[in-house]
Design brief:
The protein has 152 residues and is an alpha+beta fold. The chain contains 4 helices and 10 strands, in the order ββββαβββαβαβαβ.
């Protein structure tokens, strides 16, 4: 007998082996500095977290200290060059896969309103992408991210 959750099936006695029907992935441009990779990953993950259905229940420790909920499933972090990133972006848009973007200009902005204005000022095909996060059906996300590799 299998236990089924919203996006996963858990076989009995193998609860740590979960195969999710969906995938969350962050794709980073491969020439970013380490601090940029961490910053971009955090911002893009927050875009995906805007979908409350992807979050689990809040955590608590043995002393009942409350902690925030986190994603129910793993987040894959991949890397690719500018061409791989541009192609993934185009495929995500064409397939209607929910996505979050981070552009070069966002490294120079200081708040949310300025971030949105920086993205709004550039046509889709001219965005200088440094990161992209997507969530969707496993096979669709795999096709979007074709050419990317796991982040080292």
């Amino acid at each position: 007998m299998l236990t089924t959750y919203k996006n996963a099936t858990v076989p009995p006695r193998h609860a740590s082996t979960v195969r999710f029907e969906t995938k969350i992935a962050v794709l980073l441009r491969d020439d970013l500095q380490m601090w940029q990779r961490l910053n971009v990953t955090a911002f893009l993950a927050s875009g995906i977290a805007a979908n409350p259905e992807l979050l689990g229940e809040p955590y608590a420790d043995a002393d009942d200290t409350p902690y925030l909920p986190m994603f129910r499933q793993p987040v894959l972090v991949l890397t690719g060059d500018a061409e791989v990133l541009a192609a993934a972006h185009e495929r995500a848009v064409r397939r209607g896969i929910p996505a979050a973007v981070f552009t070069e200009e966002l490294f120079g902005t200081g708040h949310d309103e300025a971030n949105r204005a920086a993205v709004r000022a550039v046509a889709r095909d001219d965005l200088k992408l440094v990161g992209l996060a997507v969530h969707g059906q496993r096979n669709a996300v795999d096709k979007v991210l074709r050419g990317a590799t796991m982040h080292p």
